Amino acid sequence: MAHMDAQTEAELKAVYYAFASFGSSQKCVELEGKNFIKLAKDTKLLGKALTTTDIDLIFAKVKAKGARKITWPEFVKGLDHIAAKKGCAVDEVVATIIKSGGPQDNGTKAEACRFHDDKSQYTGVYARGGPTNVDMDPKNLAGLCDRSSADVRGVKTGGPAAARRSTGDAKIPAAR
Fold it and tell me: Residue 79: how many CB atoms within 10 A of its CB?
């Protein structure tokens, strides 16, 4: 590659480091293959003359044997290969990359859903509330379980459930 001025090199390095660090929680100085392809896609270098397969092959050609990432000098060599494959000057490729400004995060945004977003549309337990364990004693299991006595069919014979049944407070559906 022909020598580029210091400002162009600094701008290109900034974009290189932005793509190298994309998807990572820390700053990276080497570029992975997936991020090299993302660079080509985000900068719109891809077309009929240059495909993602070509980018992958260029990456494999410029990286050191056994390495999984490319360094800055290898990246610059890769730009030469990209320009040759596209049939244009390296300066055009560099200008296109610098103009992109870095990686674009194109995350999916959910559409509005009236059943989820509008709380007046809620039904059942979600609208009227339901059982709670806030007032129960979280320190022991007795607060969560009803251990009052029951007969063989599971009908409560003692405790609060039996008291409700005997006073008629419980609403028992009629048999059909």
Answer: 20
pTM above 0.85, yes or no: no
Q: What is the pLDDT of residues 84-124, one digit of tens each?
A: 999 999 999 999 999 988 888 777 788 888 878 888 888 77
Provide DSSP, 38-81.
Answer: HHHHHTT--SSSS-HHHHHHHHHHHSPTT-SEE-HHHHHHHHHH
Which sign does the torsion angle of CA 122, 124, 129, 131 carry?
negative
The Cα 119–Cα 125 span in angstroms is 12
Spatial distance between the Cα atoms of 140 and 164, rounded to a whole number of angstroms = 25
